[in-house]
Amino acid sequence: MAGGKLTPRQKMINLMYLVFIAMLALNMSKEVLSAFGILNNKIVESNSIADIRNDSSFQQLAQKAQDQPLQFGAKKEKVQKIRALCKEYTTYIENLKTEFTKEYPKDQDGNLPFEAMDKGDKVDEKWFEGDKPSKSGQEFLDKMKDFVAQVRQIGGSAIAESEMKKIEKRFAAEPVKSKSAGTTLNWLDYNFKGFPLIATVTKLSQLQADIKTTESDIIAGMFQTDLVAAASLTAYQPIVVPDKTAFFQGEAVTGKIILGKFDPNLVAKSVIVNGSSVKAEAGQAKFSFGAGNVGEHEINGSFNFDENGKVVSLPIKGNYVVVPKPKSANISADKMNVVYRGLDNPMTISFAGISDDKVKATATGLRPAGAPGKYNLNPGSGTEVTVSVSATLPDKSTVSDKKVFRIKNIPAPAGAIGGVVGIQKGAKSRLEVSTVSADLQDFVYDLKYEVTRFSFKVPGQAAIIVNGNKVNAQCKAALARAAKGDQISIFDIKTKIIGASNIVPKDAAPVIYEIQ
Q1: In 10 A of CB 306, how many CB atoms?
Q2: 3-class SS at 303?
Q3: pLDDT tens, residue by residue, 264-273
Q4: How many C-beta atoms lie closer than 10 Å to residue 320's C-beta?
C-alpha cells in the first residue's frame, strides 16, 4: 500500500483500511471486558476477606500489648499507625474508582456493566496531558511514593529490611520498556493510558489488594520473632493455685500447679514440689501435704520437660498461710454496739477464715441485706436481742457463737425555729415567718423529721394549738400583744419521721423565743 504512485481513489481506500484496523483495535471483545469485570469482583471479595483477617490479627496483637506492654506496646503503636495509613490510601483509591464509574450504574447484584466499560476517556482526561502525567496523574504517583516512604518512616527498624524491599518493589512506579510501542513509557502511561475503563478499575482494585497484603505482611513480620518465642516452653509460667489462700492448723494444704499457657497435650517429664515428686498430668500437677505450723510457708520445686534433646526446668514459686481454727465469730453492729427499735440496723456477721456461704446467722428481726456477710436487724419489743451464728468448717465440723445487743428507742428530737434549736432572741416579724422544725442531733442515723402540730404560748395568754409547722393568724394576733422581753414558748411538738411511717417518735423538746 505504501509503494509507487497512488491514485486519489487508492489513497482513499488505504485510509479507510487504516481506520478500520484502528476501530478493530479500539473495540475490545465483550468476552475480554467481562473477564476483567469478573476478575475485579474476585479481587474486591478477596480484599474484604483480607480486611477481616487483618482486623483479627491486630486485635490479637492489641491484646498482647495490653497484657505485656513492655514487649508488645511499641510495636502495636507502629502497626496502628500503619493501619491508619493503609486505610487512608485505600479510601483515596476507592474514591477514584467511584469517580471513574459514576456514570455506570450497578445492577441488582452490585455488578458494573462490564461490557459497556470499553472506553478509557475519563481516565485519560484526568491523568494525562499529551505524553506526560497531568496534575491529577502526578498526584496519583506521589500518593504511591509517599505511602512507601511513610511505611518506612513509621516502621523503622521494626520492619525487616528484606520485607521493606518487597514493599518498595510492590509499589515501584519505574518506566517500562514497551515492545508494542517500541519505546520506554512512564509507569502511569504504560499501565493506564488508552485502556478500557474496566481494566483500570481492576488494576486499582489490585492496588488496594497490594495495600492490604502490605498491612498483613507488616503485622506478621513485626511479631514473628515474639510469636516464635512465645511458642517455646520457656514461655510457660508455672502458677501455684491453692484451693484457698489460708489453711487451718492441722488441715491438709490442697491445690494445684498449672502452667500460665495451659496446653492439654503438654505433660511434664517430672514435677517436684517441696522436695517430693508428684504425678504430672496434662498441663498441670496436683499436690497435697501437711499444712504445718501457724504462719507463712513457701511452696517451691520445678516442672521438668524434654526440649531439643535437653531438660528444661521451669521453677515453681509460691506461698500459703496457716491460720488457727476460729473459736469465736466476728459480729459487729455497723453503727455501734446497740440496736434501735423500729430501724434497720446494718450488721456485718462472719467467721474468720470461713466463706460467707458456710455461715448462718439467726435473731429476731434479722434478715439478709443482699451482700455476703451483710444483714439488717430490726428488733421488736424487749430490751435485748441475741444474735446466734454457726459455721461449717472445711472438715465438715461446726463452730458457733452468739452475742447479745441492747435495744434502745430512738431519742426525742429537739425543737427548732428557723433551723436553730434551743433559746433564741429576735423580732416578732422573724417568728411570724419562721418554720417550726425538729432535729435529732448527734445521732448515728440520718433521720429527717416533719413537724405536724405544736402549741404556741405567749405569756399572760392561753396556749394556741397549731396544726402544721408555721404560726397561724391566731398566733400572730397573740404575738401582737406580746411585749419586749416576753418569752414565747413552742412545746408539745408532734413529728413524724419521713420515710418511716411505722415509727411513732417522741415529742420534740420545746424551744423558747425571746422578743427583742
Answers
A1: 11
A2: strand
A3: 546 677 888 8
A4: 19
Q: pTM score, two decimals? A: 0.44
C-alpha cell at 130: 499529551
Longest CA–CA span in the chain (Å) reads 150
Contact 345, 376 (CB under 8 A): yes
Mean pLDDT of 342-360: 85
Indicate the SS3 state at residue 380: coil
Spatial CA neighbour of 88 closest among 203, 208, 192, 172: 208
The β-bridge partners of 314 are 303
d(CA 156, CA 78): 9
Least confident of 19-28, 232-241, 344-353, 444-453: 19-28
Task: Report the alpha-carbon distance of residue 456 to residue 513 in Å, rounded.
Answer: 11
Q: Please enumerate in sequence order all residues whose Cβ is within 8 A of that of 6, keeping only pairs 6 or more positions apart, or say none.
A: 14
Q: Is 98 exposed, middle or buried (0-12, 13-18, 19+ CB in 10 A)?
A: exposed
Q: How many CA atoms lie within 13 A of 460 on its CB side?
A: 8
Distances from the Cα of 251 to the Cα of 62, 244, 256, 426, angstroms: 44, 12, 16, 74
Report the distance separating Cα 379 and Cα 364, nearest Å.
7
In single-letter form, the type of residue at position 123 comes to V
3-class SS string, 128-165: EECCEECHHHHHHHHHHHHHHHHHHHHHHHHCCHHHHH
Query: How many CA atoms, within 13 angstroms, populate the side-chain half-sphere of residue 264?
Result: 0
Neighbours of 278 (CB within 10 A): 19
Cα–Cα dist 495/100, whole Å: 83
Residues 6+ apart with CB under 8 A from 355: none
Burial 103-138 (b: 16+ CB within 10 A, else e): eeeeeeeeebebbebbbbebbbebbbeeeebbeebe
d(CA 344, CA 148): 71
DSSP 324: P
Q: Give the Cα separation of 175 and 482 in Å (integer).
A: 112
- Distance CA(273)–CA(256), nearest Å, equals 11
- Cell numbers for 124: 485519560
CB atoms within 10 A of CB 300: 14
Burial class (CB in 10 A: 0-12, 13-18, 19+), 41: middle
H helices of 402-493, where?
428-433, 473-480
Distances (CA, A) of 317 to 274, 302, 307: 10, 8, 22
CA distance 306 to 269: 7
pLDDT digits (tens, 9 = 90+) for 73-131: 888 899 999 999 999 999 999 999 999 988 888 888 888 888 888 888 889 899 999 88
Find out whether 421 and 439 touch, Cβ atoms under 8 Å: yes
